[in-house]
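User: Sequence in, structure out. Go.
Assistant: Echoing your sequence, followed by the C-alpha cells.
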Amino acid sequence: MTVDDTTSDGDSDPRPSTPATPETPKSPHQAPAAPVFHEVDHTAEPSDDPLAIRLEQLILGAERRYTAFQAARTAGVSMDLASRFWRAMGFPDIGQAKALTEADVLALRRLAGLVEAGLLSEPMAVQVARSTGQTTARLAEWQIDSFLEGLTEPPEPGMTRTEVTYPLVELLLPELEEFLVYVWRRQLAAATGRVVQAADDDEMVDRRLAVGFADLVGFTRLTRRLEEEELGELVEAFETTCADLVAAHGGRLIKTLGDEVLYCADDAGTAAEIALRLIETLSHDQTMPALRVGIAFGTVTTRMGDVFGTTVNLASRLTSIAPKDTVLVDGALAEELSRTGDAPVSEAEAAAEAEQAAKEGTQAPTYRFGLQPMWQRPVRGLGIVEPWMLGRRTKPDSA
C-alpha cells in the first residue's frame, strides 16, 4: 500500500502527499538511512488476466473493490500502519489500483484491534504480520511448485490449462485450508507447551538448546554435473529425509537451505541421536553425497521461528570442519552427554568401570554414545575450539 492524495473514485486523504516510509532498522547512534523509492504504476491493476482474477476471487472469497486508502479508512486504521502491515506480509505497493477486498479490510481491522486492546504492541503486530507472511509465502510457493503445477497439466488432448485449473483449485481449497489450520494448531500447542515448561521468563527467549547443522559434502561440485530436475529431486529427497528423522526422534527442524538443514533439540542426547541417524540413513543412499554434522550446546536466542547466537555459529563452524560422514560436537555438548549418562567421561573411565564390574560380577554401565577428543584448532570468530567426534557404543533400535 502507498499513501496517495486521491483515490480512484475521488475520495481524498487530508494528509500531505508523501510516500509511506518503508520500515528500516533503527540504530541508537544514527538516524535511519533515507528510503529508496522505485517507480510504481499507480493505475494498472495487479493483474488483468481473466483466469487470474477468477482464481483470486475464488481463493479470497471476495471481489476487488478498495484502493489502499479506502481499505485503511474502512478498517479505521491509519494509512501508515496499514502500509506497514501490508509490506510486512510481503506484498508490493499497489498505488491507486482497486485491488483489495473485504477480507483485507477485516484483516486490517483485526490486527489493529489487537493493538488497540493492548494485547499486542504495534511493533509486535507488525512482526506477527511479517512472520505469518514469510511462512505462508513459502508454503504457497511450495504447494504450487510441488503438486499444483503438475496436477493442472491437461489430462486429455484439447483441454486447456484454464479448464483444469479452476475446478481443481475449487476442490482443493477447503481441504488445504482445514489441514493448514489443523497443523498450525498442533504446532502452536507444542510450542506453547515448551514455553510454559521454561524455568523462568528469560528462558522463554534465551534457552539452552542443542543445535545441529547437517551439510551435504561437495554439493557445489554436484550442481555442475546434475541437470536441474535431478538436482531438485536430490534436494527434495535430502530435505524430506532430514525432516522425517528430526521429527521422529524428538527434534525440531528450524530451516532448510538446499544442501544444509538446521535443527535443534531440548537435550543433548536427542540431538546426538538425530545426527547419527542422519549419517547412517544417508550413507546407505547411493544417490546422496556424503554428509557431515556439527552440534553445539548452549544458550540460544529464538526469534520468529529461527535461532541465533554463539551456539548456532559454533555448530555451523563445527560442520564446516567435520570430515565426511562424521559428527563433531563442542565441549559443552560432550559434557552434557556425560552428565546425563549418555556417554562416558572418557574411554579410559569406561574401561575401568567394565573391569570393576567384571570383578564384582555386576553389570557394567552402558552408554549410547562414545566421544573421541580431536585436536584443538582456531575457529574464525570463536577462538580456540576443542571438537569431539561423536560415535555409537550401543546398537540403535530400529525406530
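User: And one key feature?
Assistant: DSSP finds 13 helices and ten strands in the chain.
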